[in-house]
Design brief:
Membrane topology: Multi-pass membrane protein
Mean pLDDT: 77
InterPro entries: BTB/POZ_dom, Ion_trans_dom, K_chnl_volt-dep_Kv, K_chnl_volt-dep_Kv4, Shal-type_N, SKP1/BTB/POZ_sf, T1-type_BTB, VG_K_chnl
Number of helices: 15
Number of strands: 6
Main location: membrane
Keywords: Ion channel, Ion transport, Membrane, Potassium, Potassium channel, Potassium transport, Transmembrane, Transmembrane helix, Transport, Voltage-gated channel
Order of helices and strands: HEEHEEHHHHHEEHHHHHHHH
Protein name: BTB domain-containing protein
Strand content: 5-15%
CATH class of the largest domain: Mainly Alpha
Shape: flat
Largest sheet: 4 strands, mixed
Length: 372
């Protein structure tokens, strides 16, 4: 009866000419539950008394894991008709969601060691953790490794060297994870405040603040209140310099730290100030000093230390470097092709602006990025 009701709308549509009458026989009726294929079997998983239900096909999407392979049959209970695992049911909930959605999440409230043990037991690699949770997992992993290193150093090693190493490790942990202590959190917000002040001062000092005395033109605030902006810039640079030196002292690998992107940003942010102190008011070097002050805008990138979203964006761009490179290559090829076409189409026109293929690049780029 149910199958007839399902086909009734199609019969009515065929009667009024919406769809042609089917020339083939009706499909077979639904398969009863007792004759359903084994591939669609619903499995019952008992994890320390808490029961979970899922489809067999859901688990077999990942055959390299314990639940997705035939190894799960070793845990099958014939009497209860279920799979029994004497494991943590709270963490297993996230593992089962990985089979359902293909995305593995890291619960922040769970112990990292227990989480890794559960993943290892079920044969899941931590590399599949989603981008939304990977940074938290990596930070907790680094903290755990540092604590293990502290314990190892406390067992053997020279006491003086150990004390110095512990100080450096605590400082580095405070810089990388400011929520570990109150002092680290205060320093985190203080540096963030001075970064914002420095960026705002760099913008405000270009705003006109009146007319030049005895000359035409407006006088920017940076020249009108030169001493105020200089003192403000000096305070910010002193904070940035102290932060950089402390990070350099506490870094586990100083050479790697100096070559890192964030270290280069820190140096570029403070270097114009110290070079400007050594440049005199000579007109020959004034132009170079003005150009050097442009690099102060790189201080805005220091916000990436204080923003988890910016760090995730950086990791995403790094992981997609090959795809982005192919996109840039494709755009460059299109620009060269269309610029060549425009040059040969317009080269015989009087007073043409397309004097060469490179001269046609600008028209091509503007057209592609605006009109499409």
């Amino acid at each position: 009866m149910a199958s007839v009701a399902a086909w009734l709308p199609f019969a009515r549509a065929a009667a009024i000419g919406w769809v042609p009458i089917a020339t083939h026989p009706l499909p077979p009726p639904p398969i009863p539950k007792d004759r359903r294929k084994a591939d669609d079997e619903k499995l019952l998983i008992n994890v320390s008394g808490r029961r979970f239900e899922t489809w067999r096909n859901t688990l077999e999407k990942y055959p390299d894991t314990l639940l997705g392979s035939n190894e799960r049959e070793f845990f099958y209970d014939e009497e209860c008709k279920e799979y029994f695992f004497d494991r943590d049911p709270d963490i297993f909930r996230h593992i089962l969601n990985y089979y359902r959605t293909g995305k593995l999440h890291y619960p922040k409230h769970e112990c990292l060691t227990s989480y890794d043990e559960e993943l290892a037991f079920f044969g899941i690699l931590p590399d599949v953790i989603g981008d939304c949770c990977y940074e938290d997992y990596r930070d907790r992993k680094r903290e755990n490794a540092e604590r293990l290193m502290d314990d190892k150093l406390s067992e053997n090693g020279d006491q003086n060297l150990q004390q110095l190493t512990n100080i450096r490790q605590k400082m580095w942990r405070a810089f990388e994870n400011p929520h570990t202590s109150t002092a680290a959190l205060v320093f985190y917000y203080v540096t963030g405040f001075f970064i914002a002040v420095s960026v705002m001062a760099n913008v405000v000092e270009t705003v006109p603040c009146g007319l030049r005395p005895g000359r035409a033109g407006t006088l920017p605030c940076g020249e009108r209140y030169k001493i105020v902006f200089f003192c403000l810039d000096t305070a910010c640079v002193m904070i940035f310099t102290a932060e950089y030196l402390l990070r350099l002292f506490a870094a586990p690998d100083r050479c790697k730290f100096v070559r890192s992107v964030m270290s280069i940003i820190d140096v570029v942010a403070i270097l114009p100030y110290y070079i400007g102190l050594g440049i005199t008011d000579n007109d020959d070097v004034s132009g170079a000093f003005v150009t050097l002050r442009v690099f102060r805008v790189f201080r805005i990138f220091k916000f990436s230390r204080h923003s988890q979203g910016l760090r995730i964006l950086g990791y995403t761009l790094k992981s997609c470097a090959s795809e982005l490179g192919f996109l840039v290559f494709s755009l460059a090829m299109a620009i060269i092709i269309f610029a060549t076409v425009m040059f040969y189409a317009e080269k015989n026109v009087d007073d043409t602006n397309f004097t060469s293929i490179p001269a046609a690049f600008w028209y091509t780029i503007v057209t592609m990025t605006t009109l499409g």
